[in-house]
Amino acid sequence: MRSPPYTDAVDNLNPVPAQAVRMVTQGAFSAITDFLHGKALQRFAKPPDDPDLPPLADFAELGDLDGDGVPRLGDGIGRTLVYEVPEDLFEPVIGFETAKALLREVWTNPKRLNVILVGPPGSGKSLLLEEMHRLPDSRYMVAKSTTPVGLRDVLLDDKPRLICVEEVDKANPEAQSGFLTGCDGKVSKDISGTHEEVTDLDTRFVFTANDLKGIIAPLQSRCNIQVIPDYTPKQRHDVIKAMLTKRHGMDEKDAESVARMVAKKGGDVRDGEQIGIVYQSDPALAKKLAAELKPMAA
């Protein structure tokens, strides 16, 4: 299994939050954290009696078995990684509780899981994907712009825990085929497939798509497919408002006004996201954009 990325010394960082990935080895504690937005990594030593860390029983040496007889997740040097989910993950997303629970499993389960989120434009699947990309040790790709060589390089060089892939149905079959071995946890060191193959990758994939018809059957068979239905007008209003307040810092009154205008004119979550981005630098312009938003074409 892979070792997590970290730096041995990073100056002037804040204390590690509770959601940090924790590990233990040879009686000495260590922890790493990847701040969800800044991607700043920190590693530091902790004594065994540190009250902020769990007891030894919460960790397992590489090779230990869980309740199902499956080897516990380890990083290859005698330590077990504990992948925790931030409490505010999916906070802007209304509904889709089954999809959220499955996506949490993608991150935390020792066994590899891959997921395709499929639904119409503006249904919230991209928002779910963006929330997953907040997790440390994740990468983001647009399927139609990703080559098999580029994917191979990311898998071999970075060995990320998670790869978030947008619009996989827009990629051609050859590009989609490039994801197959990655979903199986293996990749060839040479794109021709004639050289040494790495088979111990733990990378998981989450894809989005508008339509399953555009996805090759072998890729579908490697994924759990979750249908994300379109929002009702009320749900769309609530999601846009939550996103504007929690992600973009818009005050409640302005967020309510903007969300109402966007939902009334048939706008979707992406429209709300763009207005939120503008609001951070020019609140007056953001509200004007909301008021002048053109209705979506039928």
Short description:
By secondary structure, the chain is of the alpha/beta class.
Which CATH class of the largest domain applies here?
Alpha Beta
- Tally of separate domains: 3
Globally, the shape reads elongated
Please state how the strands of the largest beta sheet are arranged side by side: 5-6-9-4-10
The CATH architecture of the largest domain comes to 3-Layer(aba) Sandwich
Output the radius of gyration. Answer: 21 Å
Main beta-sheet strand count, sense and barrel state: 5 strands, parallel
- Name the poorly predicted regions: 1-80
**What's the end-to-end separation, in Å?**
50 Å
Q: Classify the helix fraction into a percent range.
A: 25-40%
Q: CATH fold name of the largest domain, please?
A: Rossmann fold
Structure description:
With 298 residues, the protein is of the alpha/beta class. It folds into 3 domains: 1-84, no CATH class; 97-227, 3-Layer(aba) Sandwich (Rossmann fold); 233-291. The chain has helices spanning 97-108, 125-133, 148-157, 173-177, 180-183, 217-221, 233-246, 252-264, 269-279, 283-291; strands at 21-25, 28-34, 41-46, 115-118, 138-142, 162-166, 187-188, 197-198, 204-209, 224-227. Helix 9 (269-279) packs antiparallel against helix 10. The radius of gyration is 21 Å and the shape is elongated. The model is unreliable at 1-80 (pLDDT under 50).
